[in-house]
Amino acid sequence: MDMLRWLSLVALLATTLFSVSACGAPPREIAITLREFSFAPAQVEAKSGEKLRLVLTNAGKLTHTFVSQEMKISRDVEAGKSESVEAIAPGQSGDYTFTCGVPGHEAAGMRGAFVVK
Ligand SMILES: [Cu+2]
Questions:
Q1: How far apart are CA 87 and CA 38, in angstroms?
Q2: Do the beta carbons of residue 84 and residue 26 sit within 8 Å?
Q3: What's the mean pLDDT in 42-61?
Q4: Which residues lie near ion ligand 1 (Cβ < 5 Å)?
Q5: 38, pLDDT greater than 80
Q6: Which domains, from first to last, does the chain contain?
Q7: What is the rounded distance in angstroms from the CA atom of residue 32 to the CA atom of residue 87?
Q8: Per-residue pLDDT for 52 more than 90?
Q9: pLDDT score for 31
C-alpha cells in the first residue's frame, strides 16, 4: 500500500473514532454553590438541548433546594453536602428561572436563570 493511501485510511479511521466518541460525549459539568441566600453563579449559560451535569454544593448552614420546572429538577441539598444531577437544557432559547423551594428563600435572593442560546 502506498503512503498516500495509508494516510487516507488513517484519517478515515480517526474521523470515525472521533464521531463515535462525540456522540457519547459526557455531559458538561457546571458547579453551582448554594448558600443563604444566593446561587453562585446565578446565571448559567447553556446551548439548547445541551447535556449538563449540575454539581450543587450547599456552602450554607440551612438545607436548600434547587428547583427548575422546565428542566424537571427538584433536588434537596443538605448543609455541607453536594448533589449531582443530570439534565438536558431546554430546546428553545430563552431564560429559564431556577429557585430554592424552601419558603422565603427565593424572596431572600435564591433565584437564578439558565440562559439558553
Ligand atoms: Cu434555600
A1: 21
A2: no
A3: 97
A4: 64, 100, 102, 105, 110
A5: yes
A6: 27-116 (2.60.40.420)
A7: 14
A8: yes
A9: 98
Q: Using the Cα atoms of residue 27, residue 31, residue 36 and residue 38 in order, give the sign of their dihedral.
A: negative
Q: How far is the CA of 108 from the centre of ligand 1 (A)?
A: 9
Contact 79, 63 (CB under 8 A): yes
CB 88 within 8 A of CB 51: yes
Distance 33 CA to ligand 1 centre (A): 11
Amino acid identity, position 111: R
pTM: 0.79
Residue 6 predicted with pLDDT over 90: no
C-alpha 5 to ligand 1 mean position (Å): 62
Q: Residue 79 corresponds to which cell in the numbers above? A: 448543609
